[in-house]
């Protein structure tokens, strides 16, 4: 606190500067807290790479009609291993939990 012979006007000025400095500090702390909350609320999947893949697709005929019950085979090009599946009633097929290389 600064004391002055001219009265309390300098003291008030000093206090207003302290309040402005305190307000900036408080604002900075609030912004940092908000950034921390946002970062911590993000799902873990957004912060890490996924090690497995998936293949999804739909089988249609030449007219564009969906084809259920079709046997679909995928092959891992590194190991030459295969996985097979059938399309569902909507002509869709799904292969999940695939290692890289399929």
Provide keyphrases for this structure:
single chain; alpha+beta; 2 domains; two-stranded antiparallel sheet; 4 strands
How would you describe the overall organization of this protein?
By secondary structure, this protein is α+β, with helices and mostly antiparallel strands. The chain has two domains: 9-44; 49-98, no CATH class. It contains one helix and four strands. It has one helix spanning 9-41, and strands at 53-58, 71-75, 82-86, 92-98. The N and C termini lie far apart (72 Å). The model is unreliable at 1-13 (pLDDT under 50).
Short précis:
With 102 residues, this protein is α+β, with helices and mostly antiparallel strands. The chain is 32% helix and 23% strand.
Please describe the topology of this protein.
Blueprint: H1 9-41, E1 53-58, E2 71-75, E3 82-86, E4 92-98
Antiparallel strand pairs: 1-4, 2-3
**Secondary structure: helix percent:** 25-40%
Number of helices: 1
Mean pLDDT equals: 76
Give helix and strand order, one letter per element, not per position.
Answer: HEEEE
Strand numbers in spatial order across the main sheet: 1-4
Strand proportion: 15-25%
- N→C terminal distance: 72 Å
Kindly give the count of domains. 2
Structural class: alpha+beta
Largest β sheet strand count, sense and barrel closure: 2 strands, antiparallel
- Number of DSSP E strands: 4
